[in-house]
Design brief:
The protein has 77 residues and is mainly alpha-helical. It has helices at residues 2-5, 9-21, 23-26, 41-55, 62-65, 70-76.
């Protein structure tokens, strides 16, 4: 039951990695597709990513990798 309840975690971690890695800045026409039935985590994840970007941009060199809030790159998709 625990594993089934947390099945979205891998997709969320993957999306956060793409948003913060700078890959979508370097390749602006790259399209990502996440296909699953439990997509309710996306609005929360985007809001959280933007908050982290705004408050803690210096962490891990993010300031140099992504000049705009992470949700910007999601919505360009």
């Amino acid at each position: 039951a625990v594993q089934a309840s947390l099945s979205f975690n891998n997709a969320m971690a993957s999306m956060m990695d793409f948003l913060f890695s700078g890959v979508l800045v370097k390749f602006p026409t790259l399209k990502l597709a996440y296909s699953e039935g439990q997509m309710g985590w996306i609005p929360y994840a985007l809001e959280r990513a933007d908050d982290v970007w705004e408050e803690h941009r210096a962490w891990g060199g993010v300031r140099d990798l992504i000049p705009e809030p992470p949700s910007t790159y999601y919505y360009r998709q």
